[in-house]
Amino acid sequence: MMARAAWPRGLTAALLTSALVLAGCASRSAAPSAGVGLAEAPAADTPSAVSLRDPDISDIAGARGQVLGRNDHLLLYRPAAGDSLRGIAARFLGNADRAWWLAEANPGTVAEVGVPLLVPLRPLNPLGVHADRMQTVPILCYHRLGAGRSKMIVSPANFEAQMTWLVHAGYHVVRLPELSAFLAGEKPLPQRSVVITFDDGYESVYRHAFPVLKRLGLPATAFVYIDFVGGGDALSWPQMQEMLASGLIDIQSHTKSHRNLVERKPGETEDRHRAAVDLELRVPRETLERRLAPLRVRYLAYPYGDADELVLDRAARQGVELAATVIPGGNPFYAQPLLLHRTMIFGDMSLETFKSKLQTSRPLSAP
Ligand SMILES: [Zn+2]
Q1: Distance 353 CA to ligand 1 centre (A)
Q2: What is the pLDDT of residues 50-67, one digit of tens each?
Q3: CB under 8 Å, gap of 24 or more: what pairs does 9-18 form?
Q4: Could you tell me the distance, in angstroms and rounded to a whole number, from the CA of residue 356 to the centre of ligand 1?
Q5: pLDDT tens across 191-222, in order?
Q6: Taking the complete model, does pTM exceed 0.85, yes or no?
Q7: Pairing, β 249-253 against β 74-78
């Protein structure tokens, strides 16, 4: 039953009704013009709640309309000329970037003058579950960029075309901490959210991907294995420092040596194998945190995408919060944080194939 929360349709109708009643009451006692009299809602104490206090509307361009009614969760708003979703989000949600909350609560709206719209003051559907479908967040996995015919090498031109298309198609490229908060039910993500990752730590990430990501303002995570860093065509420490300093690129663990964590070496006892897995997880965390301070390492990409029960147990004990496989597909609210699905992007993919890999929604009937 829980998964069948029929928002926005049913809830919207109910809230519209109560909000209109509220507005009716308020108009008898408060000045009807700007609706500021309705702003004194009690402060919310949940950490994810936004401020409910109305800033001085004369400071906010793009949100000069009227508040028709509100409670702690929702506000009904009548846009005025010149209003925009970003302006309304800035006025009531304290952040213009939350305009997508409005877009999702009012499908198809553009803040039309006089047409009331809902302003969710808190995330109403943080898990992205609807009557017939659920939101899923794909994580893209790249390796090397450059020339060459290997499947594992994506040309810089293709990479740029893919990133540019994401931006133009309205995708939101999000960071791993945001995905973590989504899975914990703490923070909603825009419907078209996607995470970008690079495995191994090739120098070509710095040379070819970083400039594109910087130009478009897109965040990404590079999973590096420590034994590779500074080698032939690997990232150097100064390159990683520079990427981190941009605020866009995160550096996380791909183990120490890139050995397959689920395979026992010939003659390796259970105890020795466990100790080896611990070392593969601990060394990159300690090394990256020391060399790239104040970086915190809590995300992991399994070499070859492989993990078993022992690996999951050791990773959890070492405080790994998210870990990625290479099982393709998006991640819904119930995704296991240490077995995240991830979609490989190959060098021979056309842009059409790339688009088809972005699974941002799945029917409830086919979980
Ligand atoms: Zn790898």
Answers
A1: 23
A2: 444 444 444 467 889 999
A3: 9/131, 11/124, 12/105, 12/118, 15/73, 15/74, 15/76, 15/118, 16/76, 16/116, 16/118, 18/69, 18/71
A4: 24
A5: 899 999 999 999 999 999 999 999 999 999 99
A6: no
A7: unpaired
What is the whole-number distance in angstroms between the Cα of residue 304 and the centre of ligand 1? 6
CA of 9 to the centre of ligand 1 (A): 44
In angstroms, what is the span from residue 190 Cα to ligand 1's centroid?
Answer: 29
Q: What is the pLDDT of residues 307-343, one digit of tens each?
A: 999 999 999 999 999 999 999 999 999 999 999 999 9
In angstroms, the CA 35 to CA 18 distance is 17
Residue with tokens 């960071």: 175
Q: How far is the CA of 14 from the centre of ligand 1 (A)?
A: 51
For residue 83, what pLDDT band results from cuts at 50, 70 and 90? very high
Instruction: Give 162's contacts (C-beta < 8 A, 6+ positions apart).
Output: 345, 351, 354
Distance 351 CA to ligand 1 centre (A): 24
Beta carbons of 220 and 209 less than 8 angstroms apart: yes
133-363: CATH topology: TIM Barrel (3.20.20)
Check residue 2 and give its pLDDT: 36
Domain positions in the chain are 2-120, 133-363
**Could you tell me which residues are beta bridge partners of residue 234?**
202
